[in-house]
Design brief:
The protein has 227 residues and is an alpha+beta fold. The strands form two sheets. It has a four-stranded mixed sheet with strand order 6-5-4-7, with helices on one face. Helix content is 28%, strand content 17%. The chain has two domains: 112 residues, no CATH class; 71 residues, no CATH class. The relative contact order is 0.08. The chain is built from six helices and seven strands; from the N terminus they run H-H-E-E-E-H-H-H-E-E-E-H-E. Helix 4 packs across helix 5.
């Protein structure tokens, strides 16, 4: 059965705030998402159990305690679940998502780092496992992410993260899917690992800013630099 807005999940931010104004309501909802039929112990597959005073499930089969957040990005968090739910709404409701600065402002967080860490956790589980790699003509480049900080400038600046990007080029114009990833350094070997993980072998790839595409490993047709 398809999920229905207003019945299975909130259809507006106002409804979300009304549904999930306390942590125990959020936990009940996570229970339903994880075990829509009934509780099933992840350790022994027993369907017998009861709710302990701390709101975790206690399995009647192996006597383990299990939380609906176990094995998820919410496990062990000290941030209220109501805040996590609100942040998820802001992240997914906008066409372009939301930046850490915008989330900090919307949620009135005391620091940018709190907003960034929360978004990082969400985005880490929003990638579809086994997703298809990029195909066709692909453009690849790397850059540093991070604002200006005192000390060394340029590529060696502290607090900056080096990442690689690959995007499909559609002919005669337009862009397709995009892949981003943090790389150890700008050496060909590190960039080649990124290519192998994100670009289908045989795809034609090129670099920007006049930098050559990393040479493919022996026996691979991964990169086909264009001029």
């Amino acid at each position: 059965m398809a999920l229905l807005a207003g019945r299975d999940y909130p259809k507006s931010y106002a409804e979300l705030r009304a549904w999930f104004d306390e942590d125990w309501k959020c936990l009940n909802y996570l229970d339903w998402l994880r075990w829509p039929e009934s509780f099933v112990c992840p350790w022994c597959d027993s369907i017998e159990g009861w709710r302990a005073p701390d709101r975790r499930w206690r399995c009647a089969g192996c006597d383990r305690r299990v939380s609906a957040t176990a094995g998820t990005i919410l496990h062990g968090t000290r941030t209220p679940l109501t805040v996590w739910f609100s942040a998820a709404w802001h992240l997914t409701s906008g066409k372009g998502g939301i930046s850490a600065t915008e989330l900090q402002r919307e949620m009135q967080f005391g620091s940018y780092q709190t907003a960034w860490a929360m978004l990082h956790r969400y985005r880490s589980v929003m990638v579809r496992p086994g997703r298809d790699r990029l195909t066709g003509d692909v453009e690849v480049d790397e850059a540093f992410l991070g604002g200006p900080e005192p000390g060394v400038t340029g590529r060696g600046a502290l607090g900056k993260v080096l990442f690689a990007a690959a995007v499909e080029l559609h002919s005669p114009r337009g862009l397709g899917r995009v892949r981003l990833g943090v790389v150890e350094d700008a050496r060909a070997g590190s960039l080649q690992k990124f290519l192998l993980a994100n670009v289908e072998p045989g795809a034609g790839s090129s670099a920007t800013a006049g930098r050559p595409t990393p040479r493919p490993p022996k026996g691979s047709t991964h990169s086909r630099p264009r001029t």
